[in-house]
TrEMBL record:
This is ABC branched-chain amino acid transporter permease component. GO terms for molecular function: transmembrane transporter activity. Keywords: Amino-acid transport, Cell membrane, Membrane, Transmembrane, Transmembrane helix, Transport. Pfam families: BPD_transp_2 (PF02653).
Amino acid sequence: MGTVILLALTGLGLAALYFLVASGLSLVFGLADVLNFAHGLFLGVGAYGTWWAAGNLPGAGPDGFGFVLAVAFGVAAGTLVAILVELVLIRPLYSRTIEQVLVTVGLSLAGVALLQATWGADARTFPRPDWTRQVTGILGAQVPNGGLLLIVAAVLVLGAILAFLRWTRYGLVIRAGVENREMVTALGIDVRKAFTLVFAIGGAAAALAGALGGVYFGTVSPGQGGSLLIFAFIVVVIGGMGSVIGSAYAAVVVGLVQQFVNYYGTSGLGDICVVGLLAVVLLLRPQGIAGKVATA
């Protein structure tokens, strides 16, 4: 029983990490129709920004409020990069899908190369609080605190995004834009500001994933964002493009499948099962778990 509880909670921790990356992807595609393959760059900037701040920023450090300050710096850096990417590279290319893909793929590769050139290709030990290295007993299972931290963070981010979308003016604009962008534009609402805001939210969530992912894995490396981005895209497709709730459901399914299958099967089999699940969803329900059927 303890093993099942441990696998379930560590799977939820992995799901939380996927959701933090996928939530921004889902919002950006739902509103702006942009498949942002450079989203992993925001994660990498957040991870390395936190890592750098913990050792160099006055007041920041690996413990207590210093770690919170380091994470805040990393999130701010990732958010700033996301805003710059939208303003400089993506905004001139709206409605030009092929060019968007080429630019974001190129930026993703260039971002990894830049991180490697700056801090090297080898993984670096991530400065994490001592309590995240410890475990907590839950129903007979010794669960790593790093995974529990990710779960709490993902729940808070999900709640914050849903509250923002439901109860703020820009949230209503974003929801309306996801449903019918042409009508929102026809009403005289400047959706370009909403595009920038969505990129900022997505960049902040991805940067937070990078910072807390460093706590979860214990290291940070230039290619970490790209590897997580693959599963984040799978989560977005399974959950339904443009649906934050769908991404949350799909992240839970993907995280649990990976953990249980990799443990009871062979290593790597869980990843194959996730890809198989993606294929099944595309065949039987191509709009995803919470997506809407496209109408002519």
